Amino acid sequence: EEHSRGSASSAEVEIIAHRGASAYAPENTLPAVDLGADIRADYVEIDVQMSSDGELVVMHDTTLARTTDVETHYPDRAPWNVRDFTLEEIEALDAGSWFGAEFAGTGVPTLQQVLDTLRGRAGLLLEVKSPQLYPGIAEAIVAELDGEGWLQADSRAGRLVVQSFDWQFMEQFNELAPRVPAGLLGGPPSEAQMAELSAWADQINPSHTRVTSAFVDMVHRYGMETWPYTVNDADRMRQLIDLGVDGVITDRPDVLIEVVDEE
Ligand code: G3P
Ligand code: CA
């Protein structure tokens, strides 16, 4: 740990900026990623999908409609699926104006741009969003991470966790990249599933509303960690830290840093 925050126990809580520091800048854009690193989150979380020409782009929804001006440019291409647009078309969109006029002209980043922004500054929590829509996305992500130096055992690029709500996909991803810590979003699983999951996965990351003391203890008994999402309220952050979670995923990493520093 490069941080020297709080007591030994609280200093172990990882601070993860959700979709970047997305309370303060448009989610899944370079300004949000950059701000997450500036605030000194331990990790920045992003969502990765694929363009029609096979490029890895950073976007939460499987359509471009909510966070870009795609409808204005392409009124006839509803429902504006990410997978139906080329990288060139996606890069020409405005992904900042919906959030605030000061972010007008901010684009949809590629995974490569996020890796460049985070390198040496913060770790990456990479969520593979809806992988069943994107044949070949696991291989493409592994190639990109490897090419950018994030898979080497002694990588100084940054720490890395890959996660998905699709647990079958994560098991396949883990076969391709066994050294990358694997996170399972959602659940929690039953105790009966834990031995099998813990044989290859490293984290169970449910909604914070599903986290109980029994769940945290079960995860730890199987040698795994839990980083629940998405917690923006300081009191709830304190409760979860008291329950023993290993990280907290938040839109407000500055609030979490203050909470951790109180301990
Ligand atoms: O990192 C956890 C969280 O991002 C999962 O939910 O919908 O924000 O991708 P969502
Ligand atoms: Ca996500």
From TrEMBL:
Q: Which InterPro entries match?
A: GP_PDE_dom, PLC-like_Pdiesterase_TIM-brl
**Which superkingdom?**
Bacteria
Note the SUPFAM superfamilies from the entry.
PLC-like phosphodiesterases (SSF51695)
Q: Is Signal one of the keywords UniProt gives this record?
A: yes
Entry keyword Signal: yes
Q: Under the GO molecular function aspect, what terms does this record hold?
A: phosphoric diester hydrolase activity
Output this protein's name: Glycerophosphoryl diester phosphodiesterase
Query: Which organism's genome codes for this protein?
Result: Blastococcus mobilis
